[in-house]
C-alpha cells in the first residue's frame, strides 16, 4: 500500500501578542457569516513567563477570542473573552496567589464549546483555575459573561492537576474540557472532580437557554 501526502498551502496567517500557545479553533456561523472561536492556553510572556507578560503590560494568562473569517485573506478579531485575571493591572494579585505553583497553567483558557454551531447563543469555556465560564454570544462582537462554575479541588486524586501542582492550586479544581450544552444543563469534566452535570437555575443564563429553542444542536 502506498500513501501519498499532499501539502496544503495556507492562505493567510494571523498572529497576536497579547496571549499565546493557540489551543483550539471552533468554526461557527452567525446569520450565515463564518467565525472562528479560538483559545490560547498561555499568556503573553513566552519564555519569560507570567512576570515577562506583566512587565510588558500584557496578559499573563491565555484567553479566548472570536474572529470574523468572512474574508479569509483578512480575518478580523471582533472580540476577546478576557476575565479580570487577564487584565495586566491585576498582575500583582495574579502572580502572587497559588497559580504560579502550578508551573504551567493558571487562569488560562483551554477548550470552548457552543450550544449550537449555527447562530449560537451561548458559549462555554474552560479557564483552568478560573473554572467554567458561560458567555452570551448572540452578538459576537459584544459577548457577555452570564454564569460560571468553579469547584474546589479534591486532594488525593491522580489527575493532571494534581501532578502539575502537588503543593499549589489549593483554591480550585482545573477546568480544561469542552462543555456540552443539553437543554438548560451543562455537562462537563473537571480534572479532580470528574464529570459534573450542572443546571441553570436563575438569572440571564436560564432565560437565554429557554429562549434558545434547544441547546444541543451540534450538527
How would you portray this structure in words?
Strands 1-2-3-4 form a four-stranded antiparallel beta sheet, with no helix packed on it. The protein has a four-stranded antiparallel beta sheet with strand order 5-6-7-8, with helices on one face. The chain has a three-stranded antiparallel beta sheet with strand order 9-10-11, with no helix packed on it. It is mostly beta strands and 219 residues long. It is 11% helix and 30% strand. The chain has one domain. A hairpin with a 7-residue loop joins strand 5 and strand 6. It has four helices and eleven strands, in the order E-E-H-E-E-H-E-E-E-E-H-E-E-E-H. The longest helix is centred in the C-terminal third of the chain and has 9 residues. The mean pLDDT is 87.
Question: Roughly what is the average pLDDT, rounded to an integer?
Answer: 87
Termini distance?
34 Å
Number of helices: 4
Strand order of the largest sheet: 1-2-3-4
Beta-strand percentage? 25-35%
Described by strand count, sense and barrel closure, the largest sheet is: 4 strands, antiparallel
Q: What best-fitting shape do the alpha-carbon axes yield?
A: globular
Determine Rg (CA atoms, Å): 18 Å
**Number of beta strands:** 11
Ranges where pLDDT stays below 50 over 5 or more residues in a row are none
**Overall tally of structural domains:** 1
Structural class: mainly beta
Question: What order do the helices and strands follow?
Answer: EEHEEHEEEEHEEEH
Helix percentage: 10-25%
Amino acid at each position: 500500500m502506498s500513501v501519498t501526502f499532499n501539502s496544503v498551502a495556507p492562505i493567510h496567517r494571523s498572529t497576536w501578542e497579547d496571549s499565546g500557545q493557540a489551543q483550539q479553533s471552533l468554526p461557527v456561523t452567525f446569520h450565515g457569516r463564518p467565525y472562528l472561536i479560538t483559545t490560547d492556553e498561555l499568556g503573553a510572556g513566552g519564555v519569560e513567563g507570567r512576570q515577562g507578560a506583566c512587565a510588558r503590560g500584557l496578559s499573563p494568562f491565555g484567553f479566548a477570542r472570536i474572529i470574523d473569517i468572512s474574508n479569509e485573506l483578512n480575518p478580523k478579531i471582533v472580540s476577546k473573552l478576557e476575565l479580570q485575571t487577564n487584565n495586566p493591572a491585576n498582575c500583582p494579585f495574579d502572580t502572587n496567589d497559588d497559580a504560579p505553583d502550578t508551573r504551567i497553567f493558571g487562569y488560562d483558557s483551554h477548550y470552548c464549546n457552543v450550544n449550537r454551531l449555527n447562530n449560537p447563543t451561548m458559549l462555554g469555556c474552560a479557564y483552568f483555575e478560573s473554572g467554567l465560564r458561560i458567555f452570551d454570544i448572540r452578538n459576537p462582537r459584544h459577548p457577555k459573561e452570564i454564569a460560571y462554575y468553579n469547584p474546589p479541588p479534591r486532594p488525593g486524586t491522580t489527575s493532571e492537576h494534581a501532578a502539575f501542582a502537588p503543593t499549589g492550586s489549593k483554591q480550585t479544581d482545573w477546568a480544561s474540557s469542552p462543555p456540552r450544552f443539553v437543554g438548560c444543563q451543562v455537562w462537563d469534566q473537571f480534572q479532580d472532580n470528574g464529570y459534573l452535570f450542572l443546571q441553570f437555575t436563575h438569572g440571564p443564563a436560564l432565560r437565554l437557554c429557554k429562549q434558545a429553542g434547544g441547546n444541543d444542536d451540534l450538527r
